[in-house]
Amino acid sequence: MALTGKQRRHLRGLGHALEAIVQVGKEGVTDGVTAQLGQALDAHELVKVKLGQATPEDRHSTADELAARTGSELVQVLGRAILLYRRNPEEPRIQLPG
Q1: Is 13 a domain residue?
Q2: Domain carrying residue 79
């Protein structure tokens, strides 16, 4: 599911007030980080991820890897924060604009 520009803007507005739930540390993207992010996406649909200063990879490649591993859409990379979205198929909480 590819997001339109209008949908991305809407999600960025919602994500502005969010606190980071998941943090990527010096180990980088591990199976544990991926599992924790998957659970957070199931529960919240829109999740902010914080990259630590010692994260080994580039922030954009880390964001792409997290999105690919969790089957989510990359909404935004801003500084050391990544915003990811994955719609919950059973109980969608966020209504995206058409």
Answers
A1: yes
A2: 5-85
